[in-house]
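Task card 7
Instruction: Convert sequence to structure tokens.
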Amino acid sequence: MPQKRILITNDDGISAPGIKALEQGLAAVGEVTVIAPDREMSANSQAISLHTPLRIHRIDDRHYAVSGTPADSVILALYHILPQRPDLLVSGINAGGNLGENVVYSGTVGAAMEGAVHGVQSFAISLASRKDLDFSGAAAFAGQLAARILQDGLEPGMCLNVNVPRGEIRGVRVTRQSQKITQNIVVKHVDPRGRPNYWLDETIELADVEPDSDYGAILAHEVSITPLQVDRTHHASLSRVARWLPELSPAKR
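Output:
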């Protein structure tokens, strides 16, 4: 049986320790190729570069650095670099969790979603911590999950968003995306010439975390697996919004 082909990417850059740990964790599962941004591209979501030319730096036969976003890396991998389509795309391991509404902004999740858009089975994986970074547990879990996906498959049009707690892992849970529990912060500074500049940050309020959510799993020291879909249609609202159409008809103007 031919060896399975696995594409790895991330948003922390090709030199990040998380992607190196992920490569090691998947080495026994299949033939791994790493195609990732040449620098940190966090919070780029699923952005693609339409107004800037892209460059590819071939490090060796299995490692390529791309001058663009995580989604750019996926597109170049699928339609230019790889001789055959991969059987699986894995994005990560991100330094820091991608939970709740941060899924919308995450380049790590965006890369996995881009894979799903193009019909490639995909999952994103993040370590829900920004300190004392030990990626070994997340890398081992990525290997287990990758093997399972390659055996059983994923439904078309979806990907998995995986978050692994720091330290002890007490279990694994399938979760839903949390409601917004963060508070956005704008921090103003003044440069030496008296001009204002602004940094965006956030705080997290964990008092009302839903137990069945991604944050709930992480707080219980469990791995969170959240299925996400490419189709963003809110199907439950289709009939309700359709009732507005008679009043919105151009003939009424």
